[in-house]
Amino acid sequence: MKRVLPFLPFLLFVASFSCVAQNSVSSIETLKSSYAASGSIVVLGGNTIVIEPKMPAPVCGLPKTENGKTTWQFYSFPLASITVPLTEVDETLISEDRVFTGSDPDKSYKPGDKGDTTMIVIAGIEGKQFHTLTYDRDKFLQLSPGPHSGKDFDQAPDTTVAFGLTFSDPASARAFEVALRDAVLEAKAQARTERP
Fold first, then answer.
1. Using CA of residue 44, residue 80, residue 159, residue 93, what is the dihedral sign?
2. What is the percent of the chain where pLDDT is above 70?
3. Beta bridge partners of 130
4. For the chain, what is the domain count?
5. How many alpha carbons fall within 13 Å on the CB side of residue 51?
6. Is 61 left (phi over 0), alpha (psi -120 to 50) or beta?
7. Which of 3, 35, 47, 150 is the most buried (most CB within 10 A)?
8. At residue 98, what are phi and psi to the nearest 5 degrees?
9. Rounded to the nearest 5°, which phi and psi values hold at 18?
10. Whole-angstrom Cα distance, residue 48 to residue 27?
11. How far apart are CA 156 and CA 150, in angstroms?
12. Does the pTM exceed 0.85?
């Protein structure tokens, strides 16, 4: 027993690191499965993911009612891929909105209607940007059937401080949001333990 005691702090550290790694794997797997209907996620190293949304991105309408008047904000995130170092996500800014897709939702909207799609918005910590591949949504929609290269729809590298992901299933969106927040916190904890 006396031989084990000097090594106890080291064994506890290794055990706690192992738990963080297992939680991180679990969170990443939940991210992948909850996003499967909307796109795919690839893991690069331990703390970076590449999100590849299905194309074309929907145009999302978000109604805002102030002083009895409804105004609309429209978003489209024409992203072929987003590289997301998890340690650079601001977990406090991950948010969820119900949005409307389809043609002219502003014309058929009645106060109290709920959107058909959930949008999760992800922002980076101050001073950080995510590397993306963007494309021209209109050119993509006009492509004929068959294989095409990125130049056919003006695919190009870009950066952004925030982006939105859409989910037709609210339960999948919530699972993704929780798993992303957990994965970010786990990645940041792991980064702190790895610093000399």
1. negative
2. 87
3. 160
4. 1
5. 28
6. beta
7. 35
8. -90, 125
9. -60, -40
10. 13
11. 8
12. no
Whole-angstrom distance, CA of residue 78 vs CA of residue 59? 9
Q: How many CA atoms lie within 13 A of 119 on its CB side?
A: 22
List CB contacts of 34: < 8 A, sequence separation 6 or more: 167, 172, 173, 175, 176, 179
Instruction: Specify the DSSP element, H or E, that contains 85.
Output: strand 79-85
- Given this model, what pLDDT does residue 102 score? 84
Share of the chain above pLDDT 90, in %: 67
Cα 183 → chain centroid? 11
Task: Quickly tell me which residue has 């699972």 as its tokens.
Answer: 175
Residues spanned by the domain of 59: 5-194
How many residues would you count in the chain? Answer: 196
Query: CB neighbours (10 Å) of residue 157?
Result: 10
